[in-house]
Amino acid sequence: MSGSRGGLTVITGPSGVGKGTLVSRLLERHPSVWLSVSATTRAPREGEQDGVNYFFHTRDQFDALVTQGGLLEWAEFAGNCYGTPRAPVEEQLASGRAVLLEIELEGARQVRRSFPSGFQIFLAPPSFSELERRIRGRGTDAEDAIRRRLARAEQELKAQDEFDAVVINDALDTALAELERLMGLS
Ligand code: ADP
Ligand code: 5GP
């Protein structure tokens, strides 16, 4: 089954593989696709804006969202919490729009249970050493965060067979074309 023309697509992959880069290129080319803005307890990186890149919350605010059932899924990742606000996703799906979630593995597993008809894509690096090079090259994370992200990446890479499709982000344009094809956008 193809992911889009309306409907839910999940994209998961280790930190630093290029999910953000690929998704922003996809959205530039296909403004009709709606990208969910997640809630997080992580501090904003330089240039990140509240309500645009994430909804930045304290741990108490995040816990309240969980208690109220306001999140479709949520998980802890490298010492912070991340979750998908439920209501906007449901509204966008009801309006027939293609909805994209860019989330980590545990969240993808939860969505697989709640939206079995969704299409789940794993974005993989060409190699582990290239992944490490990209995380470090991005220059946004402290050394301990980089180590936590690389340790988690090893676990995530083992789970790629659970996904409906695996896209390797070697050349960005090739990965973008593959993503478009899988989402029925090409
Ligand atoms: P993620 O959102 O998966 O954590 P990013 O989109 O922040 O990853 O990308 C991590 C780094 O890798 C960035 O510096 C980005 O410019 C770079 N990058 C992304 N895709 C590619 C690619 N296909 N080839 C080389 N570098 C890439
Ligand atoms: P970052 O801190 O690099 O922005 O994101 C860290 C990880 O959290 C990435 O793998 C990203 O996909 C994931 N993530 C972002 N938003 C969500 C979310 O709403 N839910 C879950 N489960 N993971 C998320």
Structure explained in plain terms:
This protein is of the alpha/beta class and 186 residues long. The protein has one domain (8-182): P-loop containing nucleotide triphosphate hydrolases (Rossmann fold), CATH 3.40.50. The longest helix is centred in the C-terminal third of the chain and has 16 residues, at 143-158. A five-stranded parallel β-sheet has the order 2-7-1-8-9, with helices on both faces. The chain has a four-stranded mixed β-sheet with strand order 4-3-6-5. Helix content is 41%, strand content 23%. Bound molecules: adenosine-5'-diphosphate and guanosine-5'-monophosphate. Guanosine-5'-monophosphate is lined by residues 15, 19, 38, 42, 73-75, 77, 82-84, 102-104, 106-107.
Uncertain residue segments: none
The largest sheet has its strands arranged as 2-7-1-8-9
Provide the structure class. alpha/beta
Q: How many β-strand stretches? A: 9
Characterize the largest beta sheet: strand count, sense, and whether it forms a barrel.
5 strands, parallel
**CATH architectural type:** 3-Layer(aba) Sandwich
| CATH H-level homologous superfamily name | P-loop containing nucleotide triphosphate hydrolases
Mean pLDDT: 94
Helicity range of the residues?
40-55%
Order of helices and strands, N to C? EHEEEHEEHEHEHHEH
Q: Could you give a quick summary of the protein structure above?
A:
The protein is of the alpha/beta class and 186 residues long. It is 41% helix and 23% strand.
Spell out the blueprint of helices and strands.
Elements: E1 7-12, H1 19-29, E2 34-35, E3 38-40, E4 54-56, H2 59-67, E5 71-77, E6 80-85, H3 86-94, E7 98-102, H4 105-114, E8 119-124, H5 128-138, H6 143-158, E9 165-168, H7 172-182
Parallel strand pairs: 1-7, 1-8, 2-7, 3-4, 8-9
Antiparallel strand pairs: 3-6, 5-6
The structure holds adenosine-5'-diphosphate (ADP) and guanosine-5'-monophosphate.
